[in-house]
Amino acid sequence: MTDASITDNPPPVQARRDIAPLLLVPALVIVSLPLVGSPASWLTLTVAGLAMGLMIFVMASGLTLTFGLMDVLNFGHGAFIAVGAFVAASVMLAMGPWMASDSLWLNLAAVAPAVLAAMALSGALGWGFERVIVKPVYGQHLKQILVTMGGLIVAEQLLKVVWGPDQITLTRPPALRGAFIIGDVAIEKYRVLAVAVGLVVFVAMQLVLSRTRIGLLVRAGVENSEMVEALGYRIRRVFVGVFVVGSALAGLGGALWALYQETVTAAIGAQVMVLIFIVIIIGGLGSVGGCFVGALLVGLVANYVGFLAPKVALGSNILLMALILLWRPQGLYPVAKR
Amino acid sequence: MAEPLLSLRGVETHIGRYHILHGVAFDVPEGGLTMLLGRNGAGKTTTLRTIMGLWRASAGEVRFDGRDITRLQTADIARLGIAYVPESMAIFADLTVQENLVLAARGGPPRSERLDRIFARFPALKRFWTLPAGLLSGGQKQMLAVARAIIEPRRLLLIDEPTKGLAPAIIANMIEAFRELKDSESTLLVVEQNFAFARRLGDTVAVMDDGRTVHSDTMQTFAADTALQQHLLGLGMDTHQ
After folding, report:
1. Is residue B121 part of a domain?
2. Averaged pLDDT score across all residues of chain B
């Protein structure tokens, strides 16, 4: 055996991080300042963009992982968002007095169980959706698109059966209404909460993915699920777990989105799915970090363009996606697939 | 005669509508290194993947340590103590060298004496310990792929073309590593196109052609029969380095 002690070796080599995509976010924020003109408007738009981006990230992160792990195109992901929104709205409406109270703690005591119930039911629905709808069509992309789209339509109609065809109007509790006023800048309280929740989800996901064995399994499975199996791990169990967690996060995102818009309709999930698909394509399919950066870019661009040129706001995210794919055709942080 | 560790009998494999293996049959004796030789397209890789459960055998039987594993899932086959190093190496490029090895050690964190042995054989892995594996050179990736397979003791290693595209110095290192493994703890089944490598390491040999096993023998006997090599492989083992 070669006698090569570590002291004979050159020092360990460290990797250089690819930060160019990450720098796009501050670059976009800085470039937009002279375009918007007023620093107060710019700051308000920036916070709004970050809040919108992070809510989309919460909804999209599970979808990008399920695609990366098992190549599953789940167009039904919007159903989990809608279920989360309806369940959260129902719980909050049922706790009307606490929601209307001026006490921050009573407001939180109404919102927290609503969010937890939304996550629990969306997660449970995700488990059933995977077992009944997705499992029979592993590896068959066309069938996945058709059957998951069908699942979304059925779910939307079932929501109308359970909650009725009319939209539900939701009023934020007093603690989450209004804005923080700093000088002549107004920053909506709810947007600050949305940013905080989104950051907590992102940091928690990064910690799980980088510090735990299950996180390693997910990252490895996104690259090469077959090799993960050959190492003795049952990748489908990992996938089901990720699907359930991703659905629960979609439910959380749905609850946040419902409170943000203050109205809930059966189409709430389908409406936001276009943005979610743009985000996961921009980020690189299967990449949580890419999904995070992509979501921030989409949120910021939507708000800046909506202010500067409202007529092109609808197409601005498609244009953003096209520009990013011209730069990096596999997305900002492409996953090294086998 | 002792029971072989691995035996294949009449194994047939279809990939889609293509019939790739047509009744493959050979034994892998315990404690040695069996070389699986054959021309390109003979079905060697498909045979390894069928043993590992990555392709499903449509007929026939694969037995490991006396147990029929033909219908087991890949993960269950791996848990019996079979490790697989594919031709593509299939290292996880976005994971660091450390993370690749931690993941491969199913029983918990890799044991330090095991790691020391691996680092002594493949020092580059220690140097690039925290580097994403995708940034390694081809030879270093092959080292990592082999290290991943042996991070815990395995009874059988299935290795597909370990010397493909590697520099001679790294091939020499691989030869020593495989020799150590077969002398100490594992049985190896290696697919190889490098006949010099095959002859130096192999104890037994199985030759495939057109999805069938056409010859099984000891490597010593096979290496001495140039005419048979010409007939089965299209060239002699002496003519290829």
Report:
1. no
2. 90
Residue A54: per-residue pLDDT: 95
- Within-domain flag for B49: yes
d(CA A192, CA A190): 5
pLDDT in tens, A192-248: 999 999 999 999 999 999 999 999 999 998 889 999 999 999 988 988 999 999 999
User: What are the chain A neighbours of B128 within 8 Å (beta carbons)?
Assistant: 12-13
Per-residue model confidence (pLDDT) at position B171: 85
- Tally the domains of chain A: 1
Interface A:B, Cβ pairs < 8 A:
100
For residue B212, what pLDDT is reported? 94
C-beta of residue B218 within 8 angstroms of C-beta of residue B61: no
Of residues A8 and A296, the one with the higher pLDDT is: A296
Residue B228's domain comprises: 6-93+155-239
Place of tokens 């055709």: A329
Encode pLDDT of A84-100 as tens digits. 999 999 999 998 888 88
- Give the pair of three-digit tokens for residue A110: 């109404």
The reply to whether A253 falls in a domain is: yes
Any chain B CB within 8 A of the CB of A97? no
**Within an 8 Å CB–CB cutoff, is residue A213 touching chain B?**
yes
Nearest to A3 among B96, B120, B176 (CB): B120
Q: Is the dihedral of CA B102, B105, B108, B112 positive or negative?
A: negative
Which among B48, B72, B74 is the top mutation candidate for probing chain A, defined by the most A β-carbons within 10 Å of its own β-carbon? B74
The answer to whether the CB atoms of A219 and B73 lie below 8 A apart is: no
Residues of A in contact with B54 (CB under 8 A): 226, 229-230
| Domain-located, residue A259 | yes
Per-residue pLDDT, B237: 61
Order of all β-strands in the sheet with B67-68: B18-28, B6-15, B57-64, B67-68
Nearest chain A alpha carbon to B86: A227
* Structural domain count of chain B: 1
Check which CATH number belongs to the domain holding B203 and give it. Answer: 3.40.50.300
**What ipTM is given for this predicted complex?**
0.92
B74 in a domain, yes or no?
Answer: yes
pLDDT band per the 50, 70, 90 thresholds, residue A176: confident
CB neighbours of residue A330 within 10 Å: 15
Domain hosting residue A59, numbered range: 39-267
| Total Cβ atoms within 10 A of residue A158 | 14
State which residue of chain B sits closest to A15, comparing Cα positions: B131
Residue B106 falls inside a structural domain: no
